Amino acid sequence: MAGFLSDLVQYRKLLLMIMVLGIGGTHLSGFQMSVINYTSPYIQKFINETWLERYGSVLHQETLTLLWSFIMSVYCVGGMIGCLCSGYLTAKYGKKKCLLFNDVVLIIAMLHIGFSRRAKSFEMILIGRFLEGIGAGINTNTHVQYAGEISPKKLRGFVNVTSSVFLALGKAVARILGLRDLLGTEDMWNVLLSFSGLVALIQLLFLPFFPESPPYLLLQKGDKAGCLKAMKQLWGEGNYHTEFDDMMKEKAVTKGTKIMNVLEVLKEPSVYPQLSTMLLLLLSLQLCGLSAITFYTSEIFQTANLQESIIPYVSLGVAISELISIIFCSSIIDRFGRRILLWGGYVLMALILVLLETSLLLSDQFLWMRYCSVILIFLFIIAYGIGPAGAVASVMNEIFTLSTRSSAFVIGGIVIWLGLTFTGMIFPFAVMLLGPFCFLIFIAVLVISAVLIYLFLPETKGKSTSEITEEFKTRQFKKKRHQTVEKNAAEEKTFCTKL
Q: Which end of the chain is least crowded, N or C, by CB within 10 Å?
């Protein structure tokens, strides 16, 4: 632990850049996805009042619900568009310029939402949420890649996990500011929604003082002097030949290949094992049961006889538990590796869900089981934070070369946004049909994911991108060789039978 703290002191400039990247990166995505729940009744009332003032009639409930669903879904639509654009923008202009451009988009979104009440226009909220979605699609992909590329090898896991830390921080900040004691009121909802634009302004002011990522400068721009200067600026004076040599090896392996677009990546067979691994990680993360836990949290707290006024603070405690557990994950990931945090985390989460399922089914017979359910929710969130929440981002960053990373993240981002839309539409119906038994689906997903990760995911701790790529090729070669041996054995058996 002392060595870890001394590293943090040595790389203090790197930490400053991580903070600047984070507050305008995944922090905003976490905030924007969570804060809308606290403003829902106020925005719907604002839409109704605006409609009444314009047309002199009360808005029908069906139309109001439709308009509200547009405000909710247009964020996901913008997210997918931003995600598709992120690959091209980062390849052509680099991560730094891409984020600066994105900050301008988010500030424009802030102005639309912030002045919507004064202008008496709910259409401005629609435009603002759409622009925020575009910003979220761009900054989530760009932030994760940028953070991974500016880190030295020995801190790579820690730096990669910071994107998840800031995502959890955004959720926690949304819950804090969304309290009725602060900005979660009818008079301040537009200020609460505009908070993300203020944070984007901070990044816009401070990010220009930090360099572009060293791998981008060397591998894409061919700027060795700029790469070394960026490394010294971020990591201080020292010997960084290991990191530089790893980048030169990657350059030799890719043979100067420019960044590939999405179609080129999808047509490249050598990237299929990495793409399959990424899809496994993302799908398992989205279907791990977190959505079910979130859905049932308020109901479980109410059945535990918690006062209505206390429930928002207990929910805030859940968000803070997630944040603290991911921070803890960032401090141990470079020691224990990624694989054990992933498969071990999923096994632990599956066990907790089994216990939670049991406690929910028996809560009517044994009243003390309701309090067990509250404790299990906290334990599930902690297991999620220590395990997959942090490790997935790290693995995704490490298994792709620079030439394929941007497009791979576009593909992964589309999967995430489609998954958010799909689970948002389907999950409520699954709850109505299955009730608490919906947890059985997530338990099965967790167990299957743990087994697949244990069997097929190589450990990426302490390895360069070229070494990880070579390990995927070796595994693929062994698989093909095994298939060839089986095929030859079958042909020999057929030949002998004919004789």
A: C
Residue 480 has pLDDT above 60, yes or no: no
- Distances in whole angstroms, Cα of residue 360 to Cα of each of 283, 289, 319, 356: 26, 15, 22, 6
User: Contact 299/409 with Cβ under 8 angstroms?
Assistant: no
Is the torsion defined by CA of 82, 88, 89, 94 positive or negative? positive
Q: What is the pLDDT of residues 374-425, one digit of tens each?
A: 888 899 999 999 989 889 988 988 888 888 888 898 999 888 888 777 776 6
CA angle 141, 146, 148 (to 5 degrees): 105
In angstroms, the CA 174 to CA 163 distance is 17
Rg of the chain on CA atoms, in Å? 24
Q: Count other C-beta atoms under 10 Å from residue 303's C-beta.
A: 18
Burial of 450 (0-12, 13-18, 19+ CB in 10 A): buried
Is residue 134 within 8 A of residue 81, CB to CB? The reply is yes
pLDDT confidence of residue 63: 83
In contact, 175 and 312? CB cutoff 8 Å: yes
Distance, CA of 465 to CA of 243 (rounded, Å): 11
Span between the terminal Cα atoms of the chain, in Å: 69
**Of 125-139, 222-236, 480-494, minimum mean pLDDT range:** 480-494
- Cβ within 8 Å of residue 444, ≥6 positions away: none
Residue 255's pLDDT is what? 64
Is residue 145 a contact partner of residue 397, using CB atoms and an 8 Å limit? Answer: yes
- CB neighbour class for 249 (10 Å; exposed up to 12, middle 13-18, buried from 19): middle
CA separation for the pair 292, 37 (Å, rounded): 16
Torsion sign (Cα): 131, 135, 138, 140 = negative
Contact between 326 and 160 under an 8 Å Cβ cutoff? The reply is no
Q: Are 64 and 122 in contact (CB under 8 A)?
A: no
